[in-house]
Structure formats: C-alpha cells, structure tokens
C-alpha cells in the first residue's frame, strides 16, 4: 500500500511523527512524506523535524503564506501533481489547517481515499477557519480517526456512516509521552530566570484574538495585570507579532516588565516549559490537550472549544477574551483553586499503532 502522509503547519508535525514511526518497518507499506510549506520558518517547521525524528520530506511544495484562498489553492495545484505522479492508494492528513483541507479535496477529486486523523472535533463556530477545514475534510474522508467520543457523536450527527469512524485516541499525546522525560531534563525555565511552577506560559495566535485591535489590546491589558502577580513567558507566534506592530501595541508589551518574550520555541523546550509552568494561558487547540495530560491548569482564551473532554475531564477552563474574566481565572488558580484532571480514554501513547493496524486490516 502506497500512502502519502501530509504535513503543512507546526501543529501537524507532532501528530504525524508517531504515525510515520508506526508505518516504518511495515513491509506492505510504502510511505511518502509531503510537506506543503504552509509554515516555513526554521522555528515554525524544521526544528520540529529535527527534534521529533521526522524524516526529511520526500516532497516539499513550498506554498508559503497568503490569503486563505491563495494558500489553499497553491497547495491544491501542487498536490494534484504529486498525486498524479505518485499514484498513492491512500493519503493521510492530520488536524485542521489549510493544508489538511486542500490535500483532502485534491485527493477526493482524484478518487484517492483520505484518512483524517483528529476527525470530528467541532467548535460549532464557523468564524474559525479551522472549523470549516474540519467539516469539509471529514465530509470527504473514508477513514475518520477520532481522539474523543464527542467527536464520534458529531460525525454521526453529520450523517457519516458508522463503519468509517474509529475512536483511536490521541497521536499528539503519543508524541508527548515519548519525549516527556527528555524534555523535562532541559531546565528551560531557568534560561529565562524563572522558577519551577512559578510562572505562567502564554501562547496567543487565533485570528479571533489577534486580528482585532480592540480585542488584542484588551488581552494585553489583562496580561499586564497578571504579570504583576506572576511572571509570564510568551513565545510569540509570527502572526501575533505582526499584529502587535501593525496596531501600535508594542508599548503595552514593553511596559510589562515581568513579561518575557521569546521567538516560537522547539517542541522539547516548549514541552519542558509547559510541564513546569504554574499556569498555562492559551488559545491553541493542542495545548488544551497537552496540559490535561500534564496536570497543569489551562486557561483558554476562547469562548468555545472543539475539545470538550479537556473541560469535562481535564484541567481546562474557557474564559474568552474578556480581560476581567481572564484575570479572575488566573487569580483563582493562584489562590489554589485548580481543577484536578483525569486522563481521557485511550490517551495512552498507542494511538498511532491503532491507526496503522486499522488501515492495514481494512484494505
Ligand atoms: C495556522 C493554522 C492554525 C494553527 C496554526 C499554528 C490554518 C487556517 N491555521 O495558523 O490552525 O493553529 O497554524 O501555528 O491553517 N508566518 C511566518 N512564518 C511561518 C508561517 C507563518 O512568518 O513559518 C506568518 C505568515 O506570514 C502569516 C502568519 O504567520 O501572516 C500566519 O500564518 P498562517 O499559516 O496563515 O496561519 P497561522 O496563523 O499560523
């Protein structure tokens, strides 16, 4: 079976690494890795290949940045040629980024079956580009691998037939377990003059938070109050630094003397920082899941989540972008009121093996 595995943006890499690993060494599988080039900076892409042991991509499509239509279209044009040349039996896509959607559409139109890993997650918020990517990718997929049981229910409600849906667990957590010990020995927090458990780690890049000047300004005000109580470490996404410059908000950051800025970090350094943080502040999808496994309180700056198990069973709370709610949630945690999470079903480090077994046994 010839399989094309696709990565495009940063959050795809940690999901793909265990799948590539599980496929390697299986004689009946010939795998190719395609990188669309949606993310291209060393710190958004190559560092993850290096640290996660991903092989060099067989094909690099070099699509780069652009509007949604431009980026998606560029991936489609380049990927169509890859499919015509390589003639795979199946393509496998992960997550919900523009590359996921673009490759799924292209393959489906050439009658090549699509496997989608992390299927069925729904925020029910179609202003999120990722939600549109999820819905369309799932509608076109032949194998829908889910991370939590709510995802199965969402797919069933959308009329997707039961035999295509497989609850396998979470490949991103496979990667976390594999690298936890190594990451935890790095002492990354000390490089920033921070102490274990006594800092907040922040990521922020969702368009709904950073593309609107008023909302972004309000969030920065909240962070400015929080850093008076606990230092904040902020590895800044390129989208966010562009917006802070554009909206003239740089002074708010400069005035917050207890907020430490860095460039986007490698997987191991970031995992180390998450494990040892007192509080996680984020609007990322994956980080809500990782902090649930690590038992670190997570304050999510969004009104909804496509990952409800992290609220129901994990350490996650949703606070939206209202500055008062953000500060109040942090104060609660600092006062010792923390959610004690449990580990969600099948988040056990073996999701990739299950996926490969299913692919081999059903073809
Ligand atoms: C994308 C994904 C999002 C994911 C996020 C993680 C979509 C719709 N969104 O959002 O789901 O959570 O990645 O990072 O696919 N840029 C660089 N260097 C890079 C990559 C991007 O400077 O290596 C800049 C681009 O110029 C662009 C901005 O960052 O202006 C945003 O990049 P883009 O890929 O459009 O979306 P993300 O916000 O990264």
Task: Provide an overview of this structure.
With 363 residues, this protein is an alpha/beta fold. It folds into two domains: 184 residues, Glycogen Phosphorylase B (Rossmann fold, 3-Layer(aba) Sandwich); 156 residues, Glycogen Phosphorylase B (Rossmann fold, 3-Layer(aba) Sandwich). 47% of the residues lie in helices and 14% in strands. It is built from 17 helices and 13 strands. The strands form two sheets. A seven-stranded parallel sheet has the order 3-2-1-4-5-6-7, with helices on both faces. A six-stranded parallel sheet has the order 10-9-8-11-12-13, with helices on both faces. The longest helix has 19 residues. The structure holds uridine-diphosphate-N-acetylglucosamine. Uridine-diphosphate-N-acetylglucosamine (UD1) binds next to helix 1, helix 5 and helix 11.
Helix content: 40-55%
Instruction: Measure the end-to-end span.
Output: 9 Å
| Number of beta-strand segments | 13
Q: Please, how many domains?
A: 2
Ions, cofactors and other bound molecules: uridine-diphosphate-N-acetylglucosamine
H and E string: EHEHEHEHEHEHEHHEHHEHHEHEHEHEHH
Largest sheet: 7 strands, parallel
Radius of gyration: 20 Å
User: Which consecutive residue ranges, at least 5 long each, have pLDDT under 50?
Assistant: none
The CATH H-level homologous superfamily of the largest domain: Glycogen Phosphorylase B
CATH secondary-structure class of the largest domain: Alpha Beta
Shape: globular
Strand content: 5-15%
CATH topology of the largest domain: Rossmann fold
| Second rung of CATH, namely the architecture of the largest domain | 3-Layer(aba) Sandwich
Strand order of the largest sheet: 3-2-1-4-5-6-7
What structural class do you assign from the helix and strand content? alpha/beta
> What would the average pLDDT be, to the nearest integer?
97
Helical stretch tally: 17
